[in-house]
Design a protein that fits this description.
This protein is of the alpha+beta class. Helix content is 43%, strand content 27%. It contains 2 helices and 7 strands.
Length: 156
């Protein structure tokens, strides 16, 4: 004979939860678990810091909770877990990770382009220095040649 008073509203970390009600203060909730469907050990094992919620209930998704109290009612044969919102946590970050990977690849590509440009600039600077040095040498040679010619002609 089924003594269940409630339909199952949701599963929290796989544990059947009859219902979740708003608690007495802001950010506080009360999750009701029937003893017939969930043991105290199962309820205590729920990871309230990052609960996996299946089905519909008023617990805000993407949040962690801290357990304030677990009480038992022999009248309804159910456990009531009073939880308080602790902090928001990131759920599935695969999409975000893909964006980060794409941006990282873009940055790496830009760095490679900049390094290539820096190498080109360095090569051009070395070429300019070599040309200037060669130009100076050629000018010195021309002046020496002109001075020699002048000297030869004036002595002749």
């Amino acid at each position: 004979m089924n003594m269940s008073l409630y339909e199952i509203e949701a599963h929290i970390c796989g544990v059947p939860c009859a219902m979740v009600l708003r608690g007495g203060s802001n950010g506080q909730y009360q999750a009701v678990f029937e003893r017939e469907r969930a043991s105290l050990e199962e309820i205590e094992a729920i990871n309230w810091a990052q609960p996996v919620i299946e089905g519909s209930c008023i617990l805000p998704t993407g949040y962690g909770f801290t357990v304030e109290d677990i009480s038992y009612s022999s009248n309804t044969r159910s456990y009531t877990v009073t939880v308080k919102v602790a902090e928001q946590f990131l759920g599935d970050v695969a999409g975000f990770q893909a964006q980060v990977d794409e941006l990282t690849a873009d940055v790496a590509s830009q760095v490679a382009t900049i390094q290539e440009q820096e190498r080109t600039i360095q090569t051009q600077a070395e070429t300019i220095q070599a040309l200037e040095a060669a130009g100076t040498a050629a000018q010195v040679e021309e002046k020496l040649e002109a001075a020699y010619q002048e000297g030869v002609e004036s002595n002749g």
